[in-house]
Amino acid sequence: MEGNSPCASCKLLRRRCTKDCIFAPYFPSDDPHKFSIVHRIFGASNVSKMLQELPVHQRADAVSSLVYEATARTKDPVYGCVGAISYLQNQVSQLQMQLAVAQTEILCAQMQQEPPMAEQQVEAYDNNLTGMPQLMNNASSSNLAQDQLKREFLWT
Ligand SMILES: [Zn+2]
């Protein structure tokens, strides 16, 4: 800490900033707005109590959450950060809907390019019956299109 300069909280509350001031690590004197907004919404003594109830390693997160909520509450006095959350949730569900529509369109486009489903199933059934894939193994069996061509050729 830089010398005797009080933290933002003690400066605003006009009190002496002691070495074990609970606000000092989270409300530096160079950012007075951060404390003033939290103080206005929650009150300094409530913030102090909240911080005291928390383990030290969680206090910084709690402070940034308090600052976020206080800022949101100032911008939107009725809903506060709930307003932002529900706005974002709305956006997520709209985007999920758009994604589902796009995926359906992709599926439709794919089905229009490929032969009808029934035909494919019949082919698969035929393969199982005749054991064609095993017969075709030695002749470039990895290429499905070629296999189909050969099969058609054998069968005619
Ligand atoms: Zn202080």
From TrEMBL:
It holds the Pfam family LOB. Residues 5-106 form the LOB domain. One of its GO terms (molecular function) is DNA-binding transcription activator activity. GO terms for cellular component: nucleus. PROSITE patterns: LOB (PS50891). GO terms for biological process: regulation of DNA-templated transcription. InterPro entries: LOB. Belongs to the LOB domain-containing protein family. This is (wild Malaysian banana) hypothetical protein.
